[in-house]
Design a protein that fits this description.
Layout (H helix, E strand, L loop, with lengths): L1 H5 L4 E6 L2 H9 L7 H11 L4 E6 L6 H10 L16
Parallel strand pairs: 1-2
Amino acid sequence: MQEVLKLGNREIRFESDCEQLIKLLEEDKDWPAMEPELDEIKALSADFTEFSIAYIPRSMNLRADSLAKGGRSRVFGSPFVNCFAPS
């Protein structure tokens, strides 16, 4: 989210293959172990004029699936994957 903001994008739709994270954000549930990360996501989302985050199964996103599988065997230098304007 920080990288997208640095690029000047203020309207964004994020997609994640972590269904539990999406539920935590949507239902505003407490999970003490994730509280700092959830607080940061909520704070950063306020900097966007339009913001949404949705669940997308990894089977529907081959690039994310490939990165997740590849991440098990090597270390990436940057967590930033891709940024493009929605059509």
